[in-house]
Amino acid sequence: MSMPMLNKMHMNGYDVLSVNNGPWRVCTQGDRLASFASKEEALAYAAALPGYKKRSTRAKSHTAQ
Predict the structure, then answer these.
(1) How many CA atoms lie within 13 A of 31 on its CB side?
(2) Residue 44 belongs to a domain
(3) Range(s) of the domain holding residue 24
(4) Spatial CB neighbours of 33, under 8 Å, sequence gap ≥ 6
(5) Could you tell me if residue 64 is inside a domain?
(6) Which tens digits make up the pLDDT trace of 13-40?
(7) pTM of the full predicted structure?
(8) CA pair distance 46, 9, nearest whole angstrom
(9) Neighbours of 18 (CB within 10 A)
């Protein structure tokens, strides 16, 4: 049995990854945005997107003072 192979990079806050030499995917932690046949296409797509920053999971509370 062979081990799965993961190639992973980061560009502009996005994950650019490929598993077992399959298609290259551009993802956030919760969403897959696009798939591409080549690493160069995926990196170009991620570079063209606006910078991604994970949002905080806690809502900031605003109290009246």
Answers:
(1) 6
(2) yes
(3) 6-48
(4) 14, 25, 26, 27, 45, 49
(5) no
(6) 899 999 998 999 999 888 889 999 999 9
(7) 0.72
(8) 11
(9) 19
